[in-house]
Amino acid sequence: MRFNIDLDNIKYIKILCMDKEDKPCTIKAAIKKINEKEIIACAKFDEEFFVETPSDVTLSIVCTDGLYRTKTKLKSVENAEPYIIFALEVPQGLEYQQNREYFRVPVEYDCVYSVRTQDEINRYDAKTIDISANGVSILLPELIISEDESYLEISIEGIDIRSRVQYIRSEKLNKGYKVSFKFTQITNQDKDFISKVCIQKQLEQKRNSIS
Asked: Considering the chain, what percentage of its residues have pLDDT values greater than 90?
């Protein structure tokens, strides 16, 4: 579909790019202006952030009606404390990725991350940051990822959920790394359970915001 999203419909964007160590990183930003040629966005200033420009990036656009994703070019990055200003090319098209029923909700559950590194499988105790019926983000002290065998065991309200997962993206935080995964092998029963938990959490958050 063509890029014709109304600015008022956009909640925020995420820019997936490569940092100075050639590792994937994600920046969450707010759109300030869109014209025929450029998207101008800003994020909180981070003196450690550096990315070469121009560079190809993946742009995720979180709207009130769902999530859209596309490829575009990051034209420039300007440090203007307390913000970083991003200038991106307006993409030619968009792909609808996910409706709002599958938006991840912020939750903290105990989990165990199992990943194959070299010739052995290592297990790491971790905490979830957010979750949906499609995937989950966890907090790790260091960036530990694998394209081969990765599994997550999550304890949700007394129920243990186990699934094979696929690495999607990562984001450097003050306390470590936020690493996001997609569930690739999960039972329909467990997926339905997570979906119900997410809906319940969304309702709780909505009630708390009103009260």
From this structure: 40
